[in-house]
Amino acid sequence: MSDAESTQPQVVVIGAACVDTKGRTRARLLPGTSNPGEIHITVGGVGRNIAESLGRLGVPVALISAVGNDDWGRDILRRTRRGGVDVHHVLVCEGERSAAYLAVLDANGERVVSVDSTDILNHIDGRYLFDRRSLFSQARIVVADGNLSEQALGSLFRLAERYRFPIALDPTSAVLAERLRQHLPRFHLVTPNVAEAEVLTGTRIHDEMDAIRAAQALVAAGVKVAVVTMAEQGCCYATSETAGRVPAIGSEVVDPVGAGDALTAAVVFGLLNDLPIDETLRLGVAAATLTLRCQGSVCPHLSLQALYDALSM
Q1: pTM greater than 0.70
Q2: pLDDT digits (tens, 9 = 90+) for 138-162
Q3: In angstroms, rounded to a whole number, what is the distance separating the alpha carbons of residues 292 and 219?
């Protein structure tokens, strides 16, 4: 048993674990034809990325997800475990393919379109979560990504009521955010990007003041800490006591996939350690910046020292 699996997790993350395929063009992207560029394959998935980022920050963390009994699934488990995550509760499904994610990036590293195939996560249903109630009983916080089914969410909410742990939500996509809107009062932390925040609040976001107002709307809906990520503009946040913006750190964009997941992980780290909200958000921006500079969906050099180093540059 690895060290990650022998330590009682402080954080439980529930969500997708995928194989990420990312193609980036070398020049201006031309639709409807083949574009010369580079293709990279790595492991990803919002829930898995958050879990590994927390593991690399030294937080005892367990992942609940599902993978196929295939080469991809074994690679996901191996590399996630290597990142400091307890993968004992990841379900290995016989006869099914592991989840996959495909992203097309333009020459500037901006995501043009993406496609995901995460149906295997439906195996993580309410019963599967309830059967692991002893894991939840000791958790200080649980993080969920937007891929969870309604049944799984219902079970998670009941477990939260029984064991009194807060829930953090990464909405994952604007498509998934629509059905999560009704559950906002259940979440302690929500970290949408602009498109997701627009769906969750019904408000158009054009600038940082709009983003702050959206974060405040999430708090008014019952969220305790709301963070709206704005890519190169940094992020805006709100609590019942304060609101503001943390600017981005200037950086080249090697790969944007996973940057938001890293921010969520760092914010969870800050909440666990009772850091002031402004410092917590600065750590989140630093984590996103380090991930933007890496080819993979999680920066292999992520650490608390690396975060503070990035802030001091």
Answers
A1: yes
A2: 999 999 999 999 999 999 999 999 9
A3: 28
| Whole-number Cα distances in Å, 250 to 285, 288, 293, 297, 309 | 11, 11, 11, 19, 14
Q: DSSP string of 205-234?
A: --SHHHHHHHHHHHHHTT-SEEEEE-GGG-
- In angstroms, what CA-CA distances link 222 with 93, 187, 225? 37, 8, 9
Strand order in the sheet with 141-145: 85-86, 61-64, 11-14, 141-145, 167-170, 189-190, 225-229, 235-238, 243-246
One-letter amino acid identity for 288? A
Question: Which pLDDT tens digit goes with each residue over 261-299?
Answer: 999 999 999 999 999 999 999 999 999 999 988 888 899
| DSSP single-letter state for residue 239 | -
Report helix, strand or coil for 26.
coil
Q: For the chain, what are the domain ranges? A: 11-165+249-312
Class level of CATH domain 11-165+249-312: alpha beta
Please tell me the number of Cα atoms within 13 Å of 77 on its side-chain side.
21
In this structure, what token pair is assigned to residue 214?
Answer: 């959206």
For 169-190, b where at least 16 C-beta lie within 10 A, e where not — what string? bbbbbbebbeebeebbebbbbb
Can you tell me the distance from the alpha carbon of 203 to that of 183, in angstroms, rounded to the nearest whole number? 17
**What single-letter amino acid sits at 292?**
L
